[in-house]
Design a protein that fits this description.
About 85% of the residues lie in helices and about 0% in strands. The chain is mainly α.
């Protein structure tokens, strides 16, 4: 249970420390401008992901966090179940079936999941402009 709490509520910065250090080291040892630019792009993308995660961890009741937990996670688990059943059935000769999501739930998810992603991107942009 502790690992789940840490996964959902904390440990955000630690997840990005090693990749960020590796990207900075790659930039330092880069031999060409092309390698240096690639390392800089990696650094920027890791920092952007870190900024989103830190802001999200600070605001535990944000709309995007709740949306992710209530919409994106269950929808992702449903898709994962479909893939698992497709793999397990042939291996073990089973005939497991994943019940299809009702059409109105699927239609809502197709609208809400992109909205959550856009909300994350908008929040990141607002924080970048605020600096």
């Amino acid at each position: 249970m502790t690992w789940l709490r840490k996964l959902l509520l904390g440990g955000v910065v630690e997840k990005f420390t090693s990749p960020l250090l590796a990207a900075y080291q790659a930039k330092l040892v880069a031999q060409t401008d092309r390698d240096r630019l690639a390392a800089e792009q990696t650094i920027k993308s890791i920092e952007a992901a870190r900024d989103i995660a830190v802001a999200e961890a600070a605001d535990r009741w944000s709309a995007t966090r709740l949306g992710r937990l209530l919409i994106v996670v269950p929808f992702g688990l449903w898709w994962a179940a479909i893939y698992c059943v497709q793999i397990i059935n042939p291996w073990f000769g089973l005939s497991l079936v994943v019940v299809d999501v009702p059409k109105h739930i699927n239609d809502m998810a197709l609208v809400l999941i992109p909205a959550i992603v856009i909300g994350d991107a908008g929040a990141l942009l607002a924080r970048r402009l605020k600096r």
